[in-house]
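Methods: holo model generation. Sequences were used as deposited, without trimming of termini or removal of tags, and paired with ligand SMILES retrieved from the corresponding compound records. Each pair was processed once, and we did not select among multiple samples. The sequence and adenosine-5'-triphosphate SMILES for this entry were:
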Amino acid sequence: MTGPAAESLLSLHDIRVRLSGLQILDGVSISVPQGTVTGLIGPNGAGKTTVFNVISGFVKPESGDVRYDGRIRKHIRAHRLTKMGISRTLQGVGLFASLSALENVMLGGSSRVRSGLVSQSLAMPWTDIETERLRTRALEVMTELGIAEEAERLPGELPYPVQKKVALARALVCDPTLLLLDEPAGGVGAPDMEELERLIRSWVPKRTVLLVEHHMELVMSVCDLIWVLDAGKVIASGTPDEVRNNPAVLAAYLGEEGAA
Ligand SMILES: Nc1ncnc2c1ncn2[C@@H]1O[C@H](COP(=O)(O)OP(=O)(O)OP(=O)(O)O)[C@@H](O)[C@H]1O
Ligand SMILES: [Mg+2]
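and the model returned the structure below.
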C-alpha cells in the first residue's frame, strides 16, 4: 500500500469525522503526489465527498491532520481555498440558475478580484479592469473546454454535459494548483467522457488532480494512483492494475451490487 509520501502536494493523516452521531470517516490516510491524477473511489456512501469537504474546510474532523503544500493546515477556511490554489467541482453541477454561463465561470475567480485591496480602495476603473481581466480569463477557459459559444446562455438552457463543463470551467478559472473533481463524468455520455479524459491528462503535471468518479473505465485510464474507500476506511491503494485486481475492492463493489 502506498503511504503518504514526502513529495505529496496533499495528504490526509488518520482523519476521523463524525456526523449526526455516525462515524463517517474512520481513520482515513491518503496522499496525493504532486503533478498526478489521483483517484478516490468506493461504493456509494463510502465517504468520498466527505473527504473533499474536509480538504475544503466545510467539515471539521474530530481528529487527524491535513497537510497541503508542505504545511499542516489546522483551520482550513472554505473562502480561502482559492488563495491556497485549491478549487473544487461539486457532485452534480451547482450552477446559479439566474446567471449566464460566463458569469458562473467568472464567479470561480471572483475572490481574486476582491482580493485586490489596492483596486478596491481606488476608483472604479481599476475594478472594471480586474473584472474585464476575469471575463477574458473566463472566456479563455471556456474556449479551452469548447463552450465559449454558450457564454451568454443560462445554465437551464444548456444540455447537462455542457453544464458540467461550465462547472469545470468555474473551477479552472482561478488557475488552481490542486483540482478536486467530484464525479465530473456523472450524467455524461461516452464521447464527452473521452474528451474529459484527454482534458484531465492535459492539466497534469502543472496541476494536481484528485478525482472522485464512479465510471471505472475513466478512473482506470486517467489515474496514476488510486485510493479506495469503503464505509469510511481506506481498503486499498495502488496503480489502476493493482486496484483492479484487489480482492477487497472487488468484494466492496460486489457488496454494493448485492445491496442495490
Ligand atoms: N451531514 C451529514 N449527516 C449525517 N450523515 C451524513 C452527512 N453527510 C454525509 N453523511 C453520510 O456519510 C456517508 C458518506 O457520505 P459521502 O457523501 O461522503 O459519500 P460518497 O462516497 O461521496 O457517496 P456517493 O458516491 O454516493 O456520492 C453516507 O452514509 C452519508 O449518508
Ligand atoms: Mg459523493
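The pocket of magnesium ion (ligand 2) is lined by residues 48-49, 91 (CB under 6 Å).
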